[in-house]
Amino acid sequence: METETVRIQVATRMSNLPPNLGFTSAVIIKLHEVIEELLEDVTGTTHVASYVASLSPISRVLLKPRSFLPEKLSRLLRRQLNRETPFCEFLAEKISFCRFSRANYTLYQRPFLMSVNVRVVKEVRFVLSSVSAPLSCAPVDVFQRLLEEQTVEPAMDLDESCSICFEKLSESPSGSHHNSIIQMPNCLHSFHQNCIFEWLARHNSCPLCRRVPFEEDQD
């Protein structure tokens, strides 16, 4: 079973306004979206399977609000960020709280710069059952088919990591001279060949989503 949840992490900081931004208080928002894949086994234990940055780059927005009241900030954020209302209302509350915090009292009477780092984390959780988490090793023919049909060459600029050894797919695992990549046939998760073969020698399934390789042929 697969479930998805989204959480928002916000970090704010205020400082003196740089001269090149003029005499109006400003807010710089840096928005970054990531995907976190979690694996929950039958005992309820959760493992971080992989942590993958989204393909979209970090977006930056410069605002010069006339008011730091939450309702007015929310309307401004909806126009500038093109995001859903609950997201903008949540972010507006965080910015307003920072603006009027006692810790920033000395900055109330003069222009300031507020930096807001926003991290939107999409959590994808795979919950395994005894049926979906086979414990037997993969048949011998699976290894042969993976070698012949699912081997891909590593891209040297690939930042994705192997979720078994946690090293980059573009690099060989520690102590190995072989860095071919195996891309699983159904889910398309990728691993170092040596890593996934060692795993399949004990479990006939993908270590991330637990789908069986070539399962359509094994039904």
Count, helices: 4
**Radius of gyration over alpha carbons?**
24 Å
What share of residues are in beta strands? 25-35%
Unreliably modeled segments: 130-135
Let me know the number of strands.
8
Query: Can you summarize the main beta sheet?
Result: 5 strands, mixed
Please state the overall shape, judged from the principal axes of the Cα atoms.
Answer: elongated
The quaternary organization reads as single chain
Straight-line distance between termini: 19 Å
- N-to-C series of helices and strands: EEEEHHEHEEEH
Brief account:
This protein is α+β, with helices and mostly antiparallel strands. The protein has helices spanning 70-81, 85-99, 140-149, 193-200, and strands at 2-16, 26-40, 46-53, 59-63, 112-127, 151-152, 181-183, 190-192.
Question: Could you explain how this protein is built, in words?
Answer:
- With 219 residues, the chain is α+β, with helices and mostly antiparallel strands.
- The protein is 21% helix and 31% strand.
- The chain is built from four helices and eight strands; from the N terminus they run ββββααβαβββα.
- The strands form two sheets. Strands 1, 2, 3, 4 and 5 form a five-stranded mixed sheet that branches.
- Helix 1 (70-81) crosses helix 2 (85-99).
